[in-house]
Design brief:
The complex is a heterodimer of chains A (385) and B (260).
Chain A: E1 10-19, E2 22-32, E3 37-41, H1 48-56, E4 63-68, E5 71-72, E6 83-86, H2 98-108, H3 113-126, H4 142-154, E7 160-164, H5 172-189, E8 192-197, H6 200-206, E9 209-214, E10 217-222, H7 224-229, H8 234-239, E11 244-250, E12 257-259, E13 263-265, E14 278-283, E15 289-292, E16 302-311, E17 315-322, E18 327-333, H9 336-342, E19 349-353, E20 359-363, H10 375-384
Parallel strand pairs in A: 3-8, 3-9, 6-7, 7-8
Antiparallel strand pairs in A: 1-2, 1-4, 4-5, 9-10, 11-12, 11-14, 12-13, 14-20, 15-19, 16-17, 16-19, 17-18
Helix pairs in contact in A: 2-3, 2-4, 3-4
Chain B: H1 2-27, H2 43-50, H3 52-85, H4 91-103, H5 106-119, H6 126-150, H7 155-162, H8 167-195, H9 199-204, H10 212-219, H11 226-256
Membrane topology (chain B): Multi-pass membrane protein
Protein name (chain B): ABC transporter permease
Family (chain B): Belongs to the binding-protein-dependent transport system permease family. CysTW subfamily.
Chain lengths: 385, 260
Amino acid sequence: MNETTEPPAVKLTGLTKSFGANRVVQPLDLEIRQGEFFSILGPSGCGKTTLMRMITGFETPTGGSVELDGKNVDAVSTKSRDLNMLFQSYALFPHLSVYENVAFELRVRRTAKREIDTRVREALELVRLGAFAERKPAELSGGQRQRVALARAVVGRPAVVLLDEPLGALDQKLRKEMQFELKRMQREVGITFIYVTHDQEEALTMSDRIAVMSEGRVLQVASPTEIYDEPASRFVATFIGSCNILDGVVDAQGTGVVVPGVGAVPALVPAGAVPGSGVALAIRPERMSMRAVGASATVDGVRATLVERAFLGDEWTFHVRLETGAVMTVSVPSGETAAELGSIADGAAVVLSWSAAAARVLPAEASATAPASAPATSALKGAAA
Amino acid sequence: MERLNSWIARLVFVFLYLPIAALIVYSFNSSEVSYRFDGFTFRWYAELFRDQMLLESLRTSALVGVIAAVLATVIGFLSAFALVRFRVKGRAFFVGAILIPLIVPEIVLGVSLLTVFSSAGLPTGIVTLVLGHVVITLPLATLVLMGAMSSLDPSLSEAATDLGASPWVTFRRVLFPLLRPSILAAFLLSFTTSFSNIVISTFTAGVGTTTLPLRIYSTLRTGLTPELNALGTLLVVATLGVILLVGVAQMRRILAGPRP
């Protein structure tokens, strides 16, 4: 893939949408590369579906423009845009067989009969439903219907396929299988996929890049590992995976962070940080370590009290309370260490430690933007106030 | 208690079907007076087909019924589509406005229709009959089609558009096949409503365009003839035929697409 000469598959410039006085998509710029598996991830109501419907042309933007493959398509209707959509409800035509559903686009576009047959068979082979061509959608399982919808979306070889939470209706096990299947199929057909979801695990598993959205804004666009390890904001840190947030202040030298009530804690402060400015430290639960300690011993680390524990099979999760009252989560993969830690009694004194690299320094934000979903975060908000 | 219930159920059925049974039996009655059964005959059927006035009114009713039902179904489809699919301003007002003829007494509608037609200089005849009947059948057709359309997944037509279909192709390949049973139901309901209407027809029929119900009603003055029994029997048979055809088609559809 040569990114310097190829125009982006999708380019959005200042795209915005309001319904009446309610602006659901703030003006945003976004570039999606050719052949990329790109996810738009955000909680429900963040504007991701509206954004997608503006790319397809179902919604007319209030402002800004959409380019597909380097060409402006603002004046091009949905039916002439070189993209297809996979609907959340699949939207299979119930009166048509699987074969005819997949053939629909080719028939509408008056493709030669013989070519229709070849391409429909190919598409059905891709989704491994060759034997189901004559069935009606009502005679298929949820997973099979989803595959038919995918075959129908790719059969016309569009430049882009948009997927609107396609796995939402499937059960947990099937969903995991389909994540890998979708990724395989996308690689096989080489079509740009834009995948809209509120499920961070789906986005992390499949995507080449992820755009995290909240309240109509794109907060960060990056690869899954970057999004996870180097979140750009408090929202991204807590929305993707679970994350402990500590509110602190850059110290006088501008090289460390002091958390009120805890003291200096390890953190890699970016160069140019203003001494005395407020920051938020984001630390992943699995990058913290914990050990039992006598109440009087002097230790290097942050003192806390073990509140409760949960065994999740592949890992142990511990909730600990800092002296400030903030509750943090520590997770340890199952194994000898975890087994030892599991024997610590509730209420015992522990010490938390982490490497400076594990604590990401984020700009402090109004805590209203942080979701209240993670218990650690909500408890911290109270402590920080 | 259960025995009583089952007897009541039987009585209700007898009550419902006795008139129809009597109609059929007396249509083969050779006696001139309808309350005595003398013997079996086809005479009334023969007379029916010789009664030009009656046949003429049957033709008028059928013609008006078909045209009014087609108009009501087409207009009803379009209004239902607009009201269900688009965020029309004043949607509730339009729905109410379309349904009002169902509530207004027909006699009032009849009088006002006649007033309008005569002040517009429109002579009463097939045209006024059709217009009058559209007024009362349109709400029915619209209601039936609105119900059917709102139960249809809106992403189906979006999917068709997304796959390159124009609005017409979307209608022909997706909406029409899926709504066909309801369109047929709207048409049949409109047709029978028009076909059996008396009140509106009284005001809107002209000389030479007497509808069948009007003709039958006027013969009351001279007394019912057994010929009318024959006509009634034929209509019942025709109705059953249509119901059977539609029913069989529906059953096929239901059997062809079993739910998993």
